[in-house]
Fold:
Amino acid sequence: MGVQASHPGASPVPALRASVTRFRKAIYSTPVIAISPARLRSRVEALARFGALPGGGVTRPCWSPQHEKARAWLLEEIRAAGLEPWVDPAGNVFGGLGARAFAADAPVVLTGSHIDTVPEGGILDGALGVLAGLEALQAIREANAARRLPLAVAAWSDEEGRYGSLFGSRAFCGKLDVARVEDMAAVDGERLVDAMARAGFDARRAGEAKAPTGAVAAYVELHIEQGPRLEEGGIPIGVVTSIVGVRRSKIVFRGQADHAGTTPMDRRRDGFLAAAEYALKARDLVVKHGGGRSVTNVGVVHVHPGVSNIVPARGELVHEMRSADAKTLENLARRCASLARRVARRRGVSVEIRPMSATTPAICAERVQAAIERACATLGLGGTRLYSAAGHDAQNLAAVTDAGMIFVPSKGGRSHRVDEMSDWDAIERGANVLLHTLLALAA
Ligand code: GLV
Ligand code: MN
Ligand code: MN
Structure:
């Protein structure tokens, strides 16, 4: 690559310091256009107030009242930044600079991310990409920087997948199975159609958000890394090469409810114990057959009827698997399905596997990676190529346009938790790389 990655054996701190010194020289001693770090920070802190938790962090699920207040706030900020605001039928919010809609004959260079969060999440996951995109477009507008193509920033609906993973960008890219919308529901049973209706949207019309072919010239998303690789390597910028695929299935083990005191141990058909055995064995299976880079998680478990003096009639879990390689993911899914059947047979229970969502691994466009690296070089910043172990809206956009991502280091690699954070200097650097990448893609 054109940009120097830090030497793997080198101490990260001096390497990062040298890179930052080069960056400060580039930004402050030559007239390169730059974002306003103070304005970006004040917007990040303002957005963090919607759904703020007393001990820090935020809970702002898509379509919730907090999310809808945040959407209204964002639309006001877009207007105040001198951009054109609009919202599509999937609830995606846009702010255009020279664009007010998507059309096949007027391709737009697009950036963005999401403003929904996981429960008890951090203030940067998604929010940073939206607000840095907004800031970059405002800075470009104010500097009247030269560009051939129009630009827009997006806030995609339900990236975190409370109702359906990457919902808004999926609809925008024509990948939403509209026939399934009626059945989509959160793990607590709340239906998507009801949640969207409460927010003033008709879920049945979400498919109308599909952008015309050719409407997006390129897509680039800034995001926190959410893992430890950049910080531990002392590298200010990550240039994303590919994004993992994620599969989620609900697995239901059905046994028999019985008296928890009087039923002899060898006669019990315990749905929970089957689920528990499956969870442990699936973990080992993915580690063994996942090629070293696959991961797995069971983050949702329900026990029915869920009282201490009844043997569980039913154990349900949501099993998630991720891999950067589509074939590996397919192979793991097959192996896990036969594992579930084996466990069920041995424990005298039945099992049902219900696929919930499946995203395929996506490759980032070489053209976008090269533009990010050129932006790093302009700013005197070191970068390294790396794959994304988290899912992102960019993986949907990659199916319809040249897409890429910029990562900035996460403190301690922490994310999806209330103390998720990045240094404000790291955020400033990432937002400036985004700005210069957008200018290059729009040139
Ligand atoms: C998105 O946050 C994901 O789950 O990877
Ligand atoms: Mn997330
Ligand atoms: Mn995110």
